[in-house]
Specification:
elongated, about 70% helix, 5 helices, Helix Hairpins, alpha/beta
């Protein structure tokens, strides 16, 4: 009975590790995007006080966003409707996202390693932990490859994040929204280089 309870706890830990890694990644990504957009909005407000121009920009960006969502593209912008983020801010954003991804993975691997070394753990539980560690290593390598391929297509920067359930590809682009052909390029790369399906792919653009 004690062994069963211990194994149940370990399995629960495994589940929470996987969920926590993804949630940490998503939360950090959203927070960084909001921070970058907020800084850009403040600078834009200082330079441009034309109220009509701001309203037009907001309306146009709203139309673009709706169209993007219909095509499966997720667009990140700040609350004021400002569509651009300075290149230095974009660079810092992607650097921080990569760091957050690395830290989340390191934390998960440390926890999984502890599970494999737990005395009395069922072999199936240990095997699951080991397989998850193998998957993390494969994802890390595949993400780097995908990022290189996407950047080679002319995108400013790219960060990929893979899980068992799907893949998120975040790209830096110019002031204009990603074109249909650009989205198709990213999809082609992901679908040809991985085993994910189109409905498991989320594309996010950062301006």
């Amino acid at each position: 009975m004690k062994v069963f309870k211990r194994n149940a706890v370990i399995i629960t830990v495994l589940i929470f590790v996987c969920v926590a890694v993804y949630l940490n990644w998503s939360y950090a990504q959203n927070e960084l995007a909001a921070e970058a957009g907020k800084t850009s909005a403040q600078e834009e407000t200082t330079e441009n006080t034309n109220e009509n121009s701001t309203e037009n920009t907001t309306e146009n960006s709203g139309e673009d966003t709706n169209g993007a969502e219909e095509s499966g593209l997720f667009y990140v912008e700040d609350e004021s409707g400002v569509e651009t983020v300075e290149s230095t801010q974009v660079s810092e954003y992607f650097d921080q996202v990569r760091l957050t991804r690395e830290q989340a993975r390191d934390s998960a691997e440390a926890t999984l390693l502890t599970v494999t070394e737990t005395e009395g753990a069922a072999q199936t539980t240990v095997d699951e932990a080991m397989q998850t560690m193998v998957n993390i290593a494969k994802w890390t390598e595949a993400e780097a490859q995908l990022e290189s391929l996407v950047v080679a297509k002319g995108f400013q920067d790219c960060v990929a994040y893979m899980t068992e359930d799907g893949i998120t590809v975040t790209v830096a682009c110019d002031a204009e929204a990603l074109s249909d052909s650009a989205v198709a390029q990213i999809k082609d790369i992901v679908l040809s280089e991985t085993e994910y399906t189109a409905d498991q792919l989320k594309i996010i653009e950062i301006k």
